[in-house]
Amino acid sequence: MSDNDPIIARGLKKSFKNVDVLDGIDLRVERGTVLALLGPNGAGKTTTIRILSTLLPPDGGQALVNGFDVVREAKQVRRSIGLTGQYAAVDEYLTGRENLEMMGKLYHLSSNDSKRRAIQLLEEFDLSEAANRIAKTYSGGMRRRLDLALSLVATPPILFLDEPTTGLDPRSRLAIWDRIEKLVYDGTTILLTTQYLDEADKLADRIVVIDHGRVIAEGTSNELKSNVGNERLELVLPTEEEVRKTIEALRTEVLRQEDNRTITVAVDGSITHVKKILDLLQNSAIEVESFTLHKPTLDDVFLQLTGHEATAAETEEDKIK
């Protein structure tokens, strides 16, 4: 990473109602890569995106986007970026084509160039057949594709995606993923926030985890998973009493209790270790209903780092109301 990276944040601070939402965030995104920003609700993800996209001034620190200061050179920053927020920002009473042509005119494209760009994006996002339908009739997946297309009218080198696939069905999510991968292949730099850990696993070159307005971990997906440690053995017991006996027998090896009849145990992944655990339970006259061996996932990373499970999107401002 270098000082020429297209997205740089140093010590970003932001408070709402005397609550510190960002408490010194540092970020760097290398050109032509995807950085995924993860964290529990209220951690500061959306506030970070809003500051970097010039929608919100920071209370402290500095941020540079495409080499421009987000406060002093906001106009130049806006010319360099595209933004897709948590909710599709389309005009429901215009057609898909009209939405795109209007955006082109807002970017000061000529009428012919706006029409040409609209046709191109409608084709790229598989919206050509619905081009002349008003957006109000679009499905959720179609609206999100149109919203992403709108953010690309001016072909920005930097794209901010704030929960881009929230609420979409699996097929629509895959379509958005495919488009994001193509954008990165063509050289676009992307900062992504997401509530879907598999999305970060699939798309991100690097991941930053934030909590309480601070960066608590960063690295590649594999690096973060390796920090969790061993693989895990999930044990399903027939009764709550058997769960109690199992926790007592295994003691410190138990990672957590998933529910009334399921616990997770840390293992090194070897047959020898798994057999040792099962033999110990058998010798303690503990009956195991079923067991499954799992490799570390981003869910494990998230839970270990934050103490929270990943949940639905919520803005930091909403969180403190």
Mean pLDDT: 88
Parts with pLDDT < 50 across at least 5 consecutive residues: 312-321
- The tally of structural domains comes to 2
- Here the CATH topology of the largest domain equals Rossmann fold
**How many helices?**
12
* Terminal-residue CA separation: 38 Å
Summing up helix and strand content along with how strands pair, one would put the structural category as alpha/beta
**SS strand fraction:** 25-35%
Biggest sheet: strands side by side, in what order?
A: 6-7-8-3-9-10
The major pleated sheet works out as: 6 strands, mixed
CATH superfamily of the largest domain: P-loop containing nucleotide triphosphate hydrolases
What is the radius of gyration? 23 Å
CATH architecture descriptor text of the largest domain? 3-Layer(aba) Sandwich
Helices and strands, in order, run as: EEEHEEHEHHHEHEHEEHEHEEHEHH
Shape: elongated
State the CATH class of the largest domain.
Alpha Beta
Percent range of helical residues: 25-40%
What's the count of strands? 14
